[in-house]
TrEMBL record:
Belongs to the NDK family. It catalyses: a 2'-deoxyribonucleoside 5'-diphosphate + ATP = a 2'-deoxyribonucleoside 5'-triphosphate + ADP. This is Nucleoside diphosphate kinase. The active site is at H115. Its cofactor is Mg(2+). One of its GO terms (molecular function) is nucleoside diphosphate kinase activity. One of its GO terms (biological process) is CTP biosynthetic process. Residues 1-137 form the Nucleoside diphosphate kinase-like domain. ATP binds at K9, F57, R85, T91, R102, N112.
Length: 137
């Protein structure tokens, strides 16, 4: 089955949103295949966001992502990458529809609560970056 990498960013963990976010994926019908809390190194985060390294907001993004533990997860099921992104909502929470995670819980693009892989190829890369093979059931 298709797998995607979903992460609850430091603001989401700090605000107590791990439960509600997991609940949305579970009730939609996805299966949790791996989960851990992690405080990743700066190098790890720079690798995760390497495609954005030239953006003006990159240093702030790395700082934000380093500001507390992250809940890293692998979710599995039909069309998990595309539907996972739909559950999260648009990157800019002000453009996220109500009913999506960002649309219900966020207003700031620099604190948008969660991450989801944007393609099957990137999902594979991100899962390999954040998890060891034996961690995934
Ligand atoms: P994510 O990869 O977190 O799921 P995304 O793929 O929807 O987000 P990207 O364009 O890859 O969006 O941006 C990655 C992250 O960088 C965003 O989720 C957000 O936290 C941050 N970001 C993007 N654009 C901006 C911006 N203009 N100002 C501040 N932060 C930004």
């Amino acid at each position: 089955d298709e797998q995607t990498f979903i992460a609850i960013k430091p603001d989401g963990v700090q605000r107590g949103l791990i439960g509600p976010i997991i609940s949305r994926f579970e009730t939609r019908g996805y299966k949790l295949a791996a989960i851990k809390l992690i405080s990743p190194s700066k190098e790890h985060l720079e690798k995760h966001y390497e495609d954005l390294s030239s953006k003006p907001f990159f240093p702030g993004l790395i700082k934000y992502m380093s500001s507390g533990p992250i809940c890293a997860m692998v979710w599995e099921g039909r069309d998990a990458v595309k539907t996972g992104r739909a559950l999260l909502g648009a990157t800019n929470p002000l453009a996220s529809a109500p009913g999506t995670i960002r649309g219900d819980y966020a207003i700031d693009i620099g604190r948008n609560i969660c991450h989801g892989s944007d393609s099957i190829e990137n999902a594979k890369k991100e899962i390999a970056l954040w998890f060891k093979e034996g961690d995934i059931v």
